[in-house]
Amino acid sequence: ALPVEKLAPQTTLGDLEPFRGGCKLVSCQTPLGPSDPNRVHNIALAARAVSGVILPPGGQFSFNQTVGPRVKELGFKEAPELIQYRLVPGIGGGICQVSSTLYNAVLLAGLPITERHNHSRPPKYVGLGQDATVVYPGKDFAFVNDTGQSLLLVAQLDSDRLEVAIVGQKPLAEQVSLAMEILEEIPFTEEEIFDPTLGLDQQEVVEEGSIGLRVRLWRTFRREDGPVRRELVGDDLYPPVARRVRKG
Asked: pTM for the full model?
């Protein structure tokens, strides 16, 4: 006989009862674009892991602990992921869109960020400085619920977009807006690769170069009956990527 282990659900109907009649505090949507089917599968898998998480007052959230290792045994598939400035096949590719979408919702909710890392190249589905890359177990995205009320995370995947919302029992005390500034543009270099199979004057572009960027992201908190305060969220560097050309 096979041994049987009963697992309790992460969230029960009783846990959700306090949110009946609650309100969507903030939400963020990001486009899927022309994504690889395996990438969409990985995004859906990670979104299901995040959706339904309840954070009590003072509770801490860890993306890596919530989603777990990105391995085939947990259902993740091979899809393009960004490693060392280049897209390469990897198990779990695409889930950074979930962490990045959640990051933007957390920013708008005004929650304190305890760990977050930017990509080596800016992804297309969020703005500069608004991405959050995750690598299990090394790079995590984590934050704290300091609102004084329990929060419910809800992630939903449609045919062309991902939405992550934060639900609470009462409205937030402050409204948050985001602003990005580009501090520096770093030119890229050209790398020549000798290829004896090409003719004397022949050349072939292996990879188009891209400039590097250093950006800052700020968030501004506003109260109806109080002062405005501004906070530096991140100072990010996206290194330049060399233009690579094969020449005969």
From this structure: 0.91
